[in-house]
Amino acid sequence: MIVFNTNSTAQTFKVIPRIYGNQFTMSIRDDSTDIPVFYEINNAVISGNYLTFHQAFSPVLVEGHFYDVRFYSDYNFWNTNYQLWENDNSFWNVDRTTDATLFRDRIFCTDQDINQMEDEYYDLNLDVYKTFNSFDNTYKVF
Fold first, then answer.
1. N or C: which end of the chain has fewer CB within 10 A?
2. Bridge partner residues of 51 (DSSP)
3. Along the 142 residues of the chain, how does pLDDT read in single tens digits?
């Protein structure tokens, strides 16, 4: 799972995809509203086993929401699939309604600091549930 925040600035994706490519379409679907948003990515960089790029989200991600993210290349869209054509041009001889899924995952949006190495985890009740202890509740036996 990928954890992002509600910033309107570009956030970094660093993933290991099924298929490597530097041009593809990214769809992000909010699980609460079931509304997808599409982004054309053409600046992805392959470094080692990782595919890395930066993307600003518009509309901005909502605190506490889950999103389904999918990177894919559409076989019927010529301009973004030149690399696929170079690998195997038989795809272009037949009109297909399928696409190549490069990557799938989920995104969770929160502004809380999460760092498992420092034992900082997501707190569902942060600043919502507060305890109050004004006296000693210990029972003493005489």
1. C
2. 15, 46
3. 888 888 888 999 999 999 888 888 999 999 999 999 999 998 899 999 999 999 999 888 998 899 999 999 876 555 445 555 565 555 555 555 567 888 999 998 887 776 667 666 666 566 666 666 666 666 666 6
Is the CB of residue 5 less than 8 Å from the CB of residue 11? yes
Please tell me the total count of domains within the chain.
Answer: 1
Domain that holds residue 67: 2-118
Domain membership flag for residue 124: no
**Within a domain: residue 114?**
yes
CATH at 66: 2.60.40.10
> Can you give the pTM of this predicted structure?
0.68
Strand partners of residue 3? 108
Distance CA 104, CA 4 (A): 16
Rounded to a whole number, what is the distance in angstroms from the first to the last CA of the chain?
Answer: 55
In a domain, 26, yes or no: yes
Q: Does some domain include residue 136?
A: no
Q: How far apart are CA 111 and CA 97, in angstroms?
A: 39
Question: Which residue reads 């399928």 in tokens?
Answer: 98
